[in-house]
Amino acid sequence: MFDKTKLIIAFGSNFEPQINIAKAKQQLSSIFETTEFSSEIWTDPINIKSEKFINCIAIAETSFDLNSVLSSLKDIEDLCGNTIEKRKCGKVIMDVDILKYGDTIMHNDDWKRPYIIQLLKELHINIK
Fold it and tell me: Where is the 7,8-dihydro-6-hydroxymethylpterin-pyrophosphokinase domain (predicted)?
């Protein structure tokens, strides 16, 4: 039996965000064990000219290695219809990022964003 690794995943969309966030939640729940979601909040775009985003955080457990998790998250983005071309036009159909895999912190700048801090606190995740 494999040990379970705790994940913290941030995801957001600025194009049909309610529909795409729901799709992402469904996919995350089907891939990862014991998935818990924060509330969904509207946020202003960062470093992009676009519509507002809906953002959310998931906490999950998995026995998958990091590369498998990254591949699964890329599949979710693709399933929602995300493409590089659409991003160049300011449409982020779905962006899914790992904030933490086990003890490994990823996307360091994201941890400083007010909405990330708010959603992590909502899920009782200590921020250092």
Answer: 8-123
**Tokens coding 42:** 């509207």
User: How far is C-alpha 117 from the geometric centre of its chain's CA atoms?
Assistant: 14
Domain ranges of the chain: 5-122
Predicted confidence at residue 22, as pLDDT, reads 97
| Topology at the third CATH level for domain 5-122 | Alpha-Beta Plaits (3.30.70)
- Kindly state the tokens that stand for 83: 């493409």
Report the predicted TM-score, pTM, of the whole model to 2 decimal places.
0.94
In order of 5, 67, 114, the CA distances from 20 in angstroms are 26, 23, 22
Nearest 5°: CA angle at 120, between 58 and 115? 100
* pLDDT value of position 3: 83
